[in-house]
Amino acid sequence: MRQPPRALRPSSRERQAGLIAAAASLFAAKGFNGTTTKEIAKAAGVSEALVFKYFPTKRALYAAILAEKVTVNELLEAVEEAAKKRDDHRVFTMIASFRIRPGVDSTLLRLLLFSALEGHELSDMFFGKHHKVFYDHLAAYIRTRIDDGAFRPLDPLLTARAFIGMVVHHRLLHEIFGVPMHQSHEDTVATYVDLFLTGLIKKPAVRTTPGRRSR
Prior knowledge:
Number of strands: 0
Structural class: mainly alpha
CATH architecture of the largest domain: Orthogonal Bundle
């Protein structure tokens, strides 16, 4: 009688992926300090020794989560292309669309909040990979457009933070507090971008006729 085929053992890559997924879920729910390697092993269905085989410390596991989930290079390349064309609307729309895209996993946002509240160095790692990169790119573009005379002479970094802050607040409302959306994703992005650019674009000076006072 033929024996049923044995189940294939998961590969090393699959085991690491399982550990990363289990750790991300627990870190997002309980924080870095509140999660033990024993809990991660149990959630992944492996031994604690296997966790340490692939990730010698929790910090290494956290770094692997960031490397797995933060994929912004392609977006930033597209933003740079739009920036070269001085396409203001597209630059801001692409950034806003990415940051509040529908169906996004809220794990990263929860990880950021926990790491910041716990006050350890992982917060700086997370901020640099997932937020600062957007501030830096957008601030550089805003500075260029100010030099072009297209934008009002405002502090580029504060201006970039204001825009990113607006869309991140939107994420907090809907992903953390569960406030329901009342517009489509496209309409929401268009509203934020139009609202912000209206205040940022430099208006032409109004000429007055000599000898007449404007009312």
